[in-house]
């Protein structure tokens, strides 16, 4: 290529670099609409300590699925908390026995269950706090959005609830006889 050809292509290369930079900087592991809806900086320990403060509010948590249960129209995921970093990616807590090493439940209508959830090694959860708890330390979230990271790229996926995010489903009062309270 001649120097004049390179000079003619230079503006298009710069434009491509700028476009890619804007796209990459604008990307997030959680869509902006959920970031705007969510209470900023809520941790699992705050959610456990002040459940009434967050009832009906949207929160972001990270985690790893430990087990699942089916009850009525819902799939319940029992999740080990993994605090989120600045990019909303879950990581192991610094202290595996500390305040952030707890558990929580995520409820999903069975007909809306994400297909690939069993392949996720970790996930970022956007959920609405139902106000119910399983034992004194396990809050329940109604799932609105989740980004799952699998053990390989093929298992990575995103799922978003298809209905109204302002709807708070009723929580079965007697799931295992362990739920206390419920949405009021």
Q: How does this structure look, described?
A:
- The protein is of the alpha+beta class.
- The protein is globular.
- It has a single domain (30-180), classed as OB fold (Dihydrolipoamide Acetyltransferase, E2P).
- The N and C termini lie far apart (72 Å).
- The chain is built from four helices and seven strands.
- It is 22% helix and 34% strand.
- The longest helix has 24 residues, at 3-26.
- It has a five-stranded mixed beta barrel.
Notable traits:
alpha+beta; OB fold (Dihydrolipoamide Acetyltransferase, E2P); five-stranded mixed β-barrel; globular; disordered C terminus
Main sheet: strand order? 1-2-3-5-4
Assign a percent range to the helix content.
10-25%
CATH class: Mainly Beta
The name CATH uses for the topology is OB fold (Dihydrolipoamide Acetyltransferase, E2P)
Strand-pairing-aware structural class: alpha+beta
What string, H for helix and E for strand, traces the elements in order?
Answer: HHHHEEEEEEE
Number of helices: 4
What is the CATH architecture annotation? Beta Barrel
User: Could you tell me the mean pLDDT?
Assistant: 79
**Proportion of beta-strand residues:** 25-35%
- Can you summarize the main beta sheet? 5 strands, mixed, barrel
């Amino acid at each position: 290529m001649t120097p004049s050809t390179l000079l003619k292509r230079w503006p298009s290369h710069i434009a491509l670099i700028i476009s890619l930079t804007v796209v990459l900087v604008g990307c997030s592991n959680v869509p902006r609409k959920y970031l705007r809806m969510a209470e900023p900086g809520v941790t699992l320990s705050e959610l456990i300590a002040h459940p009434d403060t967050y009832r009906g509010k949207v929160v972001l948590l990270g985690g790893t699925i430990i087990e699942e249960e089916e009850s009525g129209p819902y799939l319940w995921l029992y999740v080990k908390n993994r605090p989120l970093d600045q990019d909303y990616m879950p990581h192991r807590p610094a202290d595996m026995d500390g305040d952030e090493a707890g558990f929580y439940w995520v409820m999903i209508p069975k007909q809306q269950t994400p297909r690939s959830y069993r392949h996720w090694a970790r996930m970022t959860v956007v959920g609405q706090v139902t106000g119910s708890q399983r034992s004194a330390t396990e809050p329940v979230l109604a799932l609105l959005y989740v980004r799952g990271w699998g053990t390989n790229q093929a298992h990575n996926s995103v799922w978003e609830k298809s209905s109204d995010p302002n709807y708070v489903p009723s929580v079965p009062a007697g799931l295992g006889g362990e739920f206390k309270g419920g949405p009021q």
